[in-house]
Fold each of these.
Amino acid sequence: MKTIAIANQKGGVAKTTTAINLAASLAEEGKSVLVVDMDPQGNASTGLGVAVEQRNLTIYDMLLGDADPKAVIVETETKGVSVIPATTELSSSDVQLYNVNKRSFLLRDALASQAVQEAGYDYALIDCPPSLNLLTVNALVAANAVLIPLQSEFFALEGLSQLMLTIREIRQTANPRLRVEGVLLTMHDQRNNLSQQVERDARDTLGALVYETVIPRNVRLSEAPSFAVPALTYDPTSKGALAYRSFAKEFLKNNNDL
Amino acid sequence: MKTIAIANQKGGVAKTTTAINLAASLAEEGKSVLVVDMDPQGNASTGLGVAVEQRNLTIYDMLLGDADPKAVIVETETKGVSVIPATTELSSSDVQLYNVNKRSFLLRDALASQAVQEAGYDYALIDCPPSLNLLTVNALVAANAVLIPLQSEFFALEGLSQLMLTIREIRQTANPRLRVEGVLLTMHDQRNNLSQQVERDARDTLGALVYETVIPRNVRLSEAPSFAVPALTYDPTSKGALAYRSFAKEFLKNNNDL
Ligand SMILES: Nc1ncnc2c1ncn2[C@@H]1O[C@H](COP(=O)(O)OP(=O)(O)OP(=O)(O)O)[C@@H](O)[C@H]1O
Ligand SMILES: Nc1ncnc2c1ncn2[C@@H]1O[C@H](COP(=O)(O)OP(=O)(O)OP(=O)(O)O)[C@@H](O)[C@H]1O
Ligand SMILES: [Mg+2]
Ligand SMILES: [Mg+2]
């Protein structure tokens, strides 16, 4: 199981939209995917159709170490995609888990458990909150690599260096194997100069780390969650769905897994 | 001085864009405005032209109680707009300030200081991070009222009830005077159904709390920060600038201050 943290402390850059639609696209390619919702907002859980009433046990219980993964993990309506859901209970975790022994390794330990390993997922995608807090740190410590969604706008580009510093720090301390999986340009508006400029800057500074595939702004991607399904289900031929499929193929090629 | 917290735990809903452009619009109406940047990302500071090199003392120093406000506050290039800047130093605050006595009242005390009061600002606008953490709690405890930017999309609408619960909880404990200033629809795309649906839902459930003024999606609003000025300076006749001006007038009317 390769574990990918989907992280960016800037808000609204399509972390969750990427977690949902990359998961669905990988499943379409025959992969088995576990989406780990590490955001108290629970958007990934909602967008994959796991209603609040179904979230009896959540990632919070798993971090505390006292829940059987088989009881927590929910099979979604999207074949091949399972979820460890989140609820707002998670929002006090920065404080509640602060004094727990090895508090940055809780997610790593949870995903290393026998039950999760035996389920044989090909990929675990961790949806992070918009913060470099204990939850995101847990994700970066648990992950083999971090996928960075980069919204094609100024504030998002500005925040990238801070994220890179955090990744380096984690690599030097808790997780020496942590790599950058890649940087995905999201919510891209081909017609406007700013989007093109951000893309140019990103490719100039980050080179091959930036995926060829760019996710365009497409209203279908923002409508899909209100139907509790990925865009690939809601409107399979929309620009947004096609872009995430194409991204999944590029992602798999990079992993020699296509 | 009326203190307004601009809060919403959902990321990327235009909290910062609203802080910057409401401040500039109020200043155009002759008001004196203090923008308090409570986000470690420091986007409001950047968007108002306070470069990182100028942020020697920041909101973090003021929260710790050992900084003279006159030394921290920066006069921006926008006449009538001053800033208490933020840097990434603030991101460890959840943890570092946890054991400080009355940790939720640090901002209230800082803004109640003689130096701030004597400066005679008409309004203080607090830009919050995308989280219901100690920083946002400080803002809600310090504020007279909270202004909620509501992006016209599904996930943003979903998160509203959690925010309202938090506001009620703060009102019942630390800040009985806390009101909802209003809900501002932001990043609105008139042409798409989802935007219109979110607007309808918001007006149905929240009634008069929702401003008449709606901020449209307008690329000038996202370009302005890369020039380190408000949209009102960058492109004064753009749809975005005009909308924030019109919002400022509605805001002032509600405060019997126009
Ligand atoms: N390519 C796109 N085109 C149009 N809308 C999009 C696109 N990608 C995401 N969105 C919408 O933009 C908003 C922000 O996306 P999303 O919630 O996935 O970002 P996020 O980084 O997970 O946010 P947060 O920081 O709050 O967790 C959502 O309403 C989403 O539906
Ligand atoms: N009306 C608008 N039209 C176009 N772009 C906008 C508009 N409002 C904001 N933006 C852009 O959308 C992005 C998100 O806005 P902003 O950073 O103000 O949101 P935020 O709620 O402060 O985000 P965060 O949760 O990360 O603090 C920014 O790149 C901003 O420039
Ligand atoms: Mg998200
Ligand atoms: Mg902001």
Amino acid sequence: FQFNLMVIGRSGLGKSTLINTLFASNLMQSSARTSPEQPLPQTMEIEPKSCLIEENNVRLELTCIDTPGFGDVLDNEKCWDPIIKYIKDQHSTYLRSELTAKRPLFTPDTRVHACLYFIQPTGKGLRSLDILVLRKLCEVVNVIPVIGKADALTSDEKRALKTRIREELNFHRLRCYPYDLETHDEDDRKSNALIRDMLPFAVVGSTKEYTVDGTTFLGRKTRWGTLNIEDPEHSEFIYLRDFLTRTHLQDLIDTTSQIHYETFRCRQLNA
Amino acid sequence: FQFNLMVIGRSGLGKSTLINTLFASNLMQSSARTSPEQPLPQTMEIEPKSCLIEENNVRLELTCIDTPGFGDVLDNEKCWDPIIKYIKDQHSTYLRSELTAKRPLFTPDTRVHACLYFIQPTGKGLRSLDILVLRKLCEVVNVIPVIGKADALTSDEKRALKTRIREELNFHRLRCYPYDLETHDEDDRKSNALIRDMLPFAVVGSTKEYTVDGTTFLGRKTRWGTLNIEDPEHSEFIYLRDFLTRTHLQDLIDTTSQIHYETFRCRQLNA
Ligand SMILES: Nc1nc2c(ncn2[C@@H]2O[C@H](COP(=O)(O)OP(=O)(O)O)[C@@H](O)[C@H]2O)c(=O)[nH]1
Ligand SMILES: Nc1nc2c(ncn2[C@@H]2O[C@H](COP(=O)(O)OP(=O)(O)O)[C@@H](O)[C@H]2O)c(=O)[nH]1
């Protein structure tokens, strides 16, 4: 099993913390500069990092693709070009190995199966940069919108922001995962509608443990109370975890190869 | 008494909420677009809004200058130019009325006495845009750095971020308010050093009231506890309020006219 997950969003939105919490590993190091002398990021890089995970007796080779510096430079015109190029390059590597005469038995799959796009919890919806980048991403990869650091929102603000973002995704015709196909029956359509109602996932991540009233859990300790990331009232973390590692893992891989890769392959062979 | 306060920072950092809480009024309307159809801000505007405030038997004519759209457009090169131009224009209006032969008894003062600069609570310190804008602002106005929405930080993260920002302000030689003058004695220097140790103020604002255990207070209700903005453990709001409306109000006005305005005047008359 090979699963490749790309993570995109401004620095400081809790991306590395969330990935390390989701896959209970130390896969992503936070991209923080540790001292003022270090120069600020002038360009964006693309850094894949891999590790092996055992989840319910399934061996999963996970690769996380981080994009440090995204949206943090002064002029963000065309900052999405290197990301789209990376995704297309993986498709063309796969295509090349598919077309070679003497094909290896097992083709390594580096295609990006899902992309977590982090939205700021400011309560103001999508920014102009978000809309432009999402427009490009939705054409080439399965995009899953996520609100980072959702503990900065009260229950009402969270509900209002999720509705607002769903409206904006519809208005700008940004087609996120899951897709409705002609081959889908009534049940498939219903389960897709349920997922769409949960998007964007408002998550809180943490790698620190706290013990309150005898129960130990991962959370964040504030001066007015301690938050438990696995409590669905506090954070939609467990919904995102189940979605990514259990219920939709296989479908994300299949959709990538049946929809995104086939569209790419058609265009290349017709060109 | 005339006091002009400029507020700069990306949208959604809680600027309007904080100003309305500081001055117990509805002075600033949040710049949120209410529906997806409304266009995203393409440029930054500068909007002064005035109101009359009674604080401890002193009538204060307060003007708040908002900068909706700051840092939210795609290409932020030179986005600070309109702000610096606005500040200098107020100085030159004041200079012109000072130089006219028949001077009115009372010259209206629209010079900017203080500028609250909002930093994002991401834990990553100053971004490249922050450093460039602060460099320009510190030359023409009293700048007071503030961390917005500080409830997104735990106590340790808050302490680490404040230290980190102070280090970066020193490293980039950004001179915020208060200034050390030759005329100052030992006591003045000590009181300035105390203020510098409190900068940046990590504040949480709110205009909603909650009642917990019989006491009513302004706060934010989360699923794991209710925060009281006037509790110094939860938010440095009361320190910023005392600093701005009581202890340093007069000094901010004096420093503007003795340092920033005189520097401007000298340059203009020598030019
Ligand atoms: N309030 C809040 N802070 C978080 C959360 N997740 C991480 N953090 C803190 O935010 C800071 C930056 O997180 P990091 O994961 O490095 O962000 P990244 O730059 O997006 O990878 C760290 O100090 C974390 O402790 C969260 O869900 N809520
Ligand atoms: N977590 C948190 N949210 C806040 C705070 N102050 C305001 N908000 C919320 O953030 C949203 C945007 O605030 P607003 O004042 O309009 O931000 P502005 O665009 O910077 O003026 C609103 O939904 C507020 O309820 C705060 O201190 N902490």
